[in-house]
Amino acid sequence: MGLIGGAAAGSWLANSSDARPAAEAAFTKGRDVWHNAPVDTLFPRTLNSLGTGPGGADRHWTRIAVAPDNGCAGAFDPLLAKALSPVGCARLLRATYADATRTGVVTVGAQITTADRTAMQALHTRFSTEKLTTRTDLMPRPYPAQGTLAAGFGTAQRASWSVRVLTDLPVVVYAVSGFADGRAVADPQDAEAATRPGATSTPAQSGLGHGAKDLADHLEAAFRKASAGTPRATEATK
User: Fold this and answer.
1) Predicted pLDDT at 138
2) Long-range CB contacts for residues 197-205, cutoff 8 Å, separation at least 24
3) Where in this protein does the record put region Disordered (predicted)?
4) Mean pLDDT across 108-134
5) Which one, of 166, 62, 149, 61, lies nearest residue 111 by Cα?
6) What does the radius of gyration of the chain's CA atoms come to, in whole angstroms?
7) In whole angstroms, what is the distance from residue 112 CA to residue 234 CA?
8) CA 205, 111, 140 angle in degrees (round to 5)?
9) pLDDT band, very low/low/confident/very high, at 233 (cuts 50, 70, 90)
């Protein structure tokens, strides 16, 4: 039994030792994904999600605009920008999508940070313990590309949102949704709450909460795949 136990412990230590360099390599590679991965890899022209809408409905999204990669200035409301400032901003990527009915639009984006793993973990912990992802004064801003269906998608039109501080990559993924007709939303609700069974808010019943969650899921998985990490369950914005 001692021999078996020793062998098991040795195997665990070997596996842990092998995993650490791979995780570090993926984290480092994640910082370069923004200029190494084609735009269609991170923001596909079309996205199809089966069973992710209200009541298990299928969802289909078409990319209508990609913002020039840039810094983070103006991308977030001031308090969110301040909350994210500890991890820095090397680059910001954004794209806006419209759903198949052309009634909903979603901006999905990624802030490439300058932080190390310890700083990313610390910020993730803060967002989780202080429930910062549920605060309406910490919503990301949309990308209202002119000449598109999202031209009228401003800050007053925000209906639902998701912000995820990743810990295995130097990336903050976010999404924000609204109506394509430019109507203002008086009761925005974070995507986690808007996708719970029985939710009756405007974002929940319209599917805009599902849209924000779904597109954030897609972008998070795309970054992990491009960084040679293994796609896994979404890091909950708990």
Assistant:
1) 95
2) 202/159, 203/159, 203/160, 203/177, 204/54, 205/54
3) 188-211
4) 97
5) 166
6) 19
7) 18
8) 35
9) very low
Q: Give mean pLDDT, residues 140-163.
A: 96
Handedness of CA 222, 228, 234, 238 (dihedral sign): negative
Buried/exposed 170-205: b ≥16 CB within 10 Å, e otherwise: bbbbbbbbbbbebeebeebbbbbebbeeeeebbbbe
User: How distant is the alpha carbon of residue 211 from its chain centre?
Assistant: 11
Distance CA 46, CA 35 (A): 21
Strand order in the sheet with 59-66: 46-49, 59-66, 91-99, 104-112, 171-179, 158-165
Place of tokens 């709450």: 193
Largest Cα span, the chain: 71
Residue with structure tokens 């995507």?
191
| Residues 222, 42 contacting (CB under 8 angstroms) | yes
CA angle centred on 61, ends 59 and 63, rounded to 5°? 170
Residue range 118-125: mean pLDDT, rounded: 98
Burial status of residue 55 (CB atoms within 10 A of its CB: 0-12, 13-18, 19 or more) = exposed
User: What was the pLDDT predicted at 56?
Assistant: 67
Q: Side chain identity at 61, as an amino acid letter?
A: W
Backbone angles phi, psi at 229, to 5 degrees: -85, 170
Q: Helices 208-226 and 2-30 meet at what angle, rounded to 10?
A: 110
